[in-house]
UniProtKB/TrEMBL annotation, chain A:
It comes from the Bacteria. The keyword Cytoplasm does not apply. This is Amino acid ABC transporter permease. Its main location: membrane. The keyword Endoplasmic reticulum does not apply. Residues 18-207 form the ABC transmembrane type-1 domain. SUPFAM superfamilies: MetI-like. It is found in: Cell inner membrane; Cell membrane. Belongs to the binding-protein-dependent transport system permease family. HisMQ subfamily. Keywords: Amino-acid transport, Cell membrane, Membrane, Transmembrane, Transmembrane helix, Transport. CDD domains: TM_PBP2 (cd06261). It is a multi-pass membrane protein.
Automatic annotation (TrEMBL), chain B:
Residues 1-21 form the signal peptide. Coiled coil: none annotated. Residues 32-256 form the Solute-binding protein family 3/N-terminal domain. The keyword Signal applies. It comes from the Bacteria. Keywords: Signal. Pfam families: SBP_bac_3 (PF00497). This is Transporter substrate-binding domain-containing protein.
Length: 217, 268
């Protein structure tokens, strides 16, 4: 019952898949967060009416299942535009925009959570808009937005399992390859789950640590 | 007036289409041939202990890439995903044991057959059967519901002698054969070779090919890519001519003659 045909080579193969998952996640969360901050600030600053086109585009990314986005983006770029790009590029591009769409909401929520009187006070003291944003809004909004952002990052990491559809061999795909060869689905999925846990647990704990450190009581 | 302008516009639009490089040119200029291969279908496609793709189809893809002077990229595909992955442009050709059905030919372009799955007569050595006719009046069996089982049952009815026994799965059939409960069975040559090779079933052997229509499989690409289809047809011809086809058969399937890829009495 506890015998397995899993070898050291196969574990390395899984680790490579986990590395790919981490890489896709890191790139997407980074680009997605930068874009998300820009979009979020923009939406807050220009008001609902002027931000409507952007809101619409972001809503599209939030409401269409990621799997469909990946397939359509891949087909559009490679067959319609005839641009030769790797599946990894497509995967990172789509995931970044997907992350950005969610992150923009988190950022907007964070900014809105900063009390307006406080911001007016800052401006009354002679601070410029930029100073107000960086020295008053950012520190407060970050504290509010951090838990949601950690949740988003972990979510994107798990959603990255879908990028196998554009030929990126990440953790889940590597597991499926091994399942086909070794025919031990339950055992292999357990190991795969363990890998995901090992990756996400430190991120979740790091988020908890930051939250505690930043709270001012 | 308006319609004549429209017509002129249409004519202009049709004529103005520039001469385009076809897929054959695209592959050569890109330097990469992307083949869809099914990797859970040994011996045609599977993975080795280091999880690298191996198999008849993988080698065939590599040969095709070498003939084009490009590098091969094996893209793992499942059976139902073969044609969609081709249509969505994520692969250039399908080297995936695709049966050349007329239904598929409405959607994609098929080359001439590059391989054929034949059926073998596998017997219990004690029965003394040496060919297909020898099965007459004996106890035969196969996995219930398969093409081979239907064919065998039909044969038994035709002979009016002997017995047909259905089994739940292929392993049971070979086990029954090995234990002497069955005298003979018919199964795909690849499956028969693989099972005989395992040594789990002593006392069974492949004696002949069954006289059934083989399952011909073709290389597949987009149906409008005549340049590439043309090239691949010649490539398949060359594979057979140079003996590479027989070499790959020995390497992946086993000893013996590979299937004849031509059909007597008709072109192609």
């Amino acid at each position: 019952m506890f015998e397995t045909a899993l070898t050291y080579n196969d574990l390395m193969f899984l680790a490579k898949g986990a590395g790919m998952t981490l890489m896709v996640t890191a790139i997407s969360v980074f680009i997605g967060t930068v874009l998300g901050i820009i979009f979020g600030v923009f939406r807050y600053q220009v008001g609902a009416l002027w931000a409507m086109p952007l809101t619409f585009v972001l809503d599209v990314f939030r409401s269409i299942p990621l799997l469909i986005q990946l397939v359509l983006a891949n087909a559009f770029i490679t067959t319609v535009l005839k641009i030769k790009v790797s599946g990894l590029t497509v995967a990172c591009g789509v995931l970044s925009l997907y992350t950005a769409a969610y992150c923009a909401e988190i950022v907007r929520g964070g900014i809105e959570a900063v009390p307006l009187p406080l911001r007016r006070a800052a401006r009354s003291l002679g601070m410029t808009w930029g100073q107000d944003m960086t020295s008053v809004v950012m520190p407060l909004a970050t504290r509010v937005a951090l838990p949601s952002w950690i949740g988003l990052a972990l979510g994107v990491m798990k959603d990255s399992a879908l990028v196998y559809i554009v030929q990126v061999v990440e953790l889940l795909k590597s597991t499926q390859i091994l399942i086909t060869r070794l025919q031990e689905p339950l055992f292999l999925l357990m190991i795969c789950g363990l890998f995901y846990f090992v990756i996400s647990f430190p991120i979740a704990r790091f988020g908890g640590y930051l939250e505690k450190r930043w709270s001012n009581d | 007036m308006k319609s004549s302008i429209l017509a002129a516009g249409l004519v202009a639009a049709t004529c103005a289409t520039p001469a385009m490089a076809d897929k054959l040119d695209d592959i050569i200029s890109a330097g990469v041939l992307r083949c869809a291969v099914v990797l859970d279908f040994p011996p045609m496609g599977s993975r080795d202990a280091d999880n690298n793709p191996i198999g008849f189809d993988v080698d065939y893809c590599n040969d095709l890439a070498a003939a084009l002077g490009v590098t091969a990229e094996v893209v793992e595909t499942t059976f139902p995903e073969r044609i969609p992955s081709l249509m969505s442009g994520s692969v250039d050709v399908v080297v995936g044991s695709t049966s050349d059905t007329l239904e598929r030919a409405k959607t994609v372009g098929m080359t001439m057959p590059y391989y054929a799955f034949e059926n073998a007569v596998v017997v219990s050595e004690k029965s003394g059967i040496t060919d297909e006719a020898g099965m007459q009046g004996k106890t035969v069996g196969a996995t219930a519901g398969t093409y081979e089982a239907i064919w065998l049952e039909e044969k038994v009815k035709e002979w009016g002698a002997g017995e047909f026994r259905p089994y739940q799965n292929q392993a049971d059939v070979f086990l029954a054969l090995s234990q002497g409960q069955l005298d003979a069975t018919v199964s795909t040559m690849e499956v028969a070779q693989a099972n005989v090779k395992t040594g789990n079933f002593p006392g069974i052997s492949i004696v002949a090919k069954a006289d059934m229509v083989p399952d011909y499989v073709a290389l597949v690409t987009l149906r409008e890519e005549y340049g590439l289809l043309n090239f691949m047809n010649l490539f398949i011809n060359q594979q057979v001519r140079t003996g590479r086809y027989a070499e790959l058969y020995t390497k992946w399937v086993g000893e013996g003659e590979p299937a004849n890829l031509t059909i007597p009495g008709v072109y192609r």
